[in-house]
Request: fold
Amino acid sequence: MSADLRHPIARVRGLGSARQGTHHWIAQRLTAIGLVPLSLWFLWSVLTLVGAEYADARSFVAQPWNAALLAAFVLLLFYHAKLGIQVVIEDYVHSKPAEVTLLVSNLFICLFAALFAVFSIVRIALGA
Amino acid sequence: MSSTRPKQRPLSPFMIGPYYRPQLTSMLSITHRATGVFLTFGGLVLTWWLFALAGGPESYARFDAFASSWLGRLILVALAYSLVYHVLNGLRHLLWDIGWGLEIPRAYATGWIVLFGSIAGTAAIVYYAFGSGG
Reply:
């Protein structure tokens, strides 16, 4: 124990070798819990839209409840995806430059996709 | 790091097969990851759908051409299966997180439920989608 230069409180707070604690784990579970009902709602909604015309699909997304639930689904989806893909990269990519490149790409792709999707939903919902 | 490793040992998941006998639990575990990665691409397809819908009838027609093509339908059915599987197995993971179902008989029982539930759920979705003129 005396060889450990870290203060014991750092251990208690969960600041391990990753320099962060359980935040990733908790965020992955909380987004998962949120995504269970949202996924079922989304699946049911998409099934009602099979074979729908452009105007029908647009008026579905324009409904306030649908727009809000879709935005929530997309935000939680890409947050959860970012966390999951991050773990896959950390587990299987063993070259540091490739790992860092993929981790940063993962973050940017998930962030931009979420922004693109929410921007599109808002644009449809406001009738622009 | 790898240069100091004395021997090239098999790393997960490549020890399954030559070193570890494939088991229901390990197969469901790797499928959870595979469907998760595939569903991330599914999220990009959803983003494309919303972006095309916001763009107007021409951009929506381009998405529609993809979605109603042979390859597009195959991808959408695979995404439906992946979503049903990932939600069901995700619930299994959440139950483990609160300490339920970690015993081997229960882990196997819930594993079979996930496997057959995801197949049945996808079959119902495909039946509904293609039965209603999709």
About this structure: The mean pLDDT of chain A is 91. Chain A touches chain B through 37 residues (CB under 8 Å).
